[in-house]
Protein: MCF2 protein
Organism: Rynchops niger
Amino acid sequence: SPETAIPICAKDISDDLMKEFAFLSGGRGKDKAWIITLPDNAHFNEVPEEIVSKVLTYLTSVPSQHESDTKFILILDRRLDTWTSVKMTLQKIAASFPGNLHLVMVLRPTGFFQRTFTDIGFRFSQEDFLLKLPVVMLSSVSDLLTYIDEQQLTPEFGGTLEYCHSEWVIFRTAIESFALTVKEIAQMLQSFGTELAETELPDDMYSIERILALRTEKYYQLKEDITAVTKEGNLLLSSFEEPDAGERSQDQHCERPGDWETVNRLLGQLCEMETAFDGFWEKHQLKMEQYLQLWKFEQSFQEVKNAIEFLMGQQAELPDTGDSFPQVKQRLKDLGHFDGMAQDLIGKAQVVILHGHQLAANHHYALNLICQQCNELRHHSDVLSDEIKRKQMRLQKTLDLHTRLQQALQCCDEGAYLLANQQMDKCQSKEGAQKALQDIERFLESSSAYLNYDPQALHYDFESVLTSELKCQIQSVQVKLENVRSMFENRQACFKKLLDKHVRPVQLVAPRPENPPRSKSPLFSPKHGKIFEVCGSSSHCIPFLFQIEVMHDYQEKRNSLQSFISDSDDNLDILKGHVINELIETERVYVEELFTVLTGYRAEMDNPAMLILMPPVLRNRKDVLFGNMPEIYDFHNKIFLHSLESCLGAPERVGFCFLDRRQDFQMYEKYCQNKPRSESLWRQCSESTFFQECQRKLEHKLGLDSYLLKPVQRLTKYQLLLKELLKYSTSCDGVQELQEALVAMLDLLKSVNDSMHQISITGYD
């Protein structure tokens, strides 16, 4: 039937098995055939054929699990039964026995009449049975012993084989339950493995760590289940006696069919499954951990790479040259600070690279990718570091050039100072002239390294950093050096002529006593009175004195400046050139000072890191403190400085520059009108830590208030320089524009002054 085709378990037919109308004792007959006993049972024929078939199918299936080609012997104990019952039993068996039936032994009924009926009935029916069943009729138990050894028979047949049917059913149920549990464990492990293999991992670290933790927890739970089942199996195994063929011969050996082997085999399978599962989990866990390591590594890699690329972009904007000593020094300092940030970042990159090498050394599955990213980081770090070093070297070389130019300018100033302070009344005697000549020669000897600078050598030494601006500066310094050398040659010629002819020169008024010039002041600075001389073709030299007087009052006459100068056009051009040089040089310094104030103070007011140092009264009031200084800076940096620089070889254009930008200078009126408010705010917070910290970073010796005064001072400076330039431009192109420019700047000063008085008047429309 279809039901019998399904494997039957003891648990499914336990009630039918417990009726004990058939049992498998474990005994074996000839040819190792298994003995199935049908004990004397008056109700056997009442058992439905379907149940008999299920029980016999189950009993024959037990040894068939361990052996192929199993044979069976049936012992029918019908000593207390009737021939009719025997016949029905044989018919049932012939119809439904599921196995290879080797022999049927019938202990026939012992009653006189029944024995007679059996003999007669069997004789008439024998041919029918023999067609299907090999049947042997036995009269007594002793006949049975001639066929089967007593050690293979249970006690009711005179044998010695111990058998308890209820115990056998319990054990069979336990064995099959254990086998089912082992199968379920195998399915659970298979399901878990499939889940691990097919589940896609998320792309965030927290979720990955969470999944790994949950899977680890499930792994240990399955391990606990395996341990519990193994313990159950070992307990079951210990209840069976292990078969040992060495203790007795195979003929004498009694065994319960395959129980020990079954349980032992299942335990072996369980052990193999656990070993395979542990190996699989170890590989999976390693892969998960490496996946997590790779995720963290790639996060760190991307962060550092982005930071380096950002710094590379910033680095590209940093200049590698400068037009003045302070500018280059500041840029070197800025680059040094930038290099510090870069080195910190490169240090972080080294940590990431080291982490990558550790992963690679541990045979990470993404070895090639990790090595590639490590090489990429190392390359970016090297490029950044090399580029910073290149700029540092260029800036340092540029700084060296500016230093040498400054030294040359200082030498020019000191030379001019020496000549200006020689007391001419004492030089009229032979001794005085000799001493003055010796002073000049000593100076020329000590300063020969600077006075005799070779411009070609400078160009060669600093070729790699020269810009058009630096070339102009070298040319300008060379002009000053030539002028000073010419002055010394003229003065030497004068004194030599005095010594040769012993002619008493014209009595001259001694110059006013002066302070030594500052090392950084431009040559022929209008701030210092200097003696200059021009030697013509006459036989004696005439020293000239000019004194620049500063006028702060507009009401004084504009032509009050008087000076004595040689009529030589060459000397006028030289003096005019020096004034223009000073105008441009001081303009550059002015622009640089405005830039440092705006970046070092004004911009810091928006810096979140500096907010804690800023007094509350100062917050959001940078427009009050600095006024329209950004507007003034943009005008001078982008427009006016370039206009002035274009006049370096064309002094006649200076007046036009001022007139062309006359309207732009009105922005100073706005700055000056804001000055009282700015000063009031400054007085409230001048001692704050914020300003002290900004001044410390800028390395300024003066406070911010001195720099806030610069625009006002610059406005005054323009009219002084224009007056000086006008003095040396008596008969040349551009004089009319220069005069108009001076008038315009003086008018601006008056306008600013009037507006300052006007805003002081309150209470009136």
The first strand starts at residue 23 and ends at 28. Residues 245-255, 503-568 have pLDDT under 50 and may be disordered. The radius of gyration is 59 Å. The first helix runs from residue 2 to 5.
